[in-house]
Amino acid sequence: xxxxxxxxxxxxxxxxxxxxxxxxxxxxxxxxxxxxxxxxxxxxxxxxxxxxxxxxxxxxxxxxxxxxxxxxxxxxxxxxxxxxxxxxxxxxxxxxxxxxxxxxxxxxxxxxxxxxxxxxxxxxxxxxxxxxxxxxx
Length: 137
Hints:
21% of the residues are buried. β2 and β3 form a beta hairpin. This protein has one domain (6-12, 23-126). It is built from five helices and five strands. The protein is of the alpha+beta class. α2 (21-44) packs across α5 (116-126).
């Protein structure tokens, strides 16, 4: 089975950094922590999709509607989101749940439930970085 980990790499061009190299790592850290926090918070918000009885708990569960971040059911997706800074000019967010890309990009049978792209754009905005990210499936 192919690796279905969803990975977001944030890299800084060393030629652009120059004398501010020591300042880049804290900025990258704030950026990736913001991405993780926004994604997890978006999933925890109330949803407006279909309500059904959970086969796992027997309790009612409200699914996410198309265009909403995924609803939390077991917490596996939320708990699979991690970040690291492997070197001073690169940060990485990984989402290890194998179904993560299907939720973000949708499938032929399910509309997308974006949670990564909005998290990236929110973190960029909050950190004063003038950029917009568009993810492609």
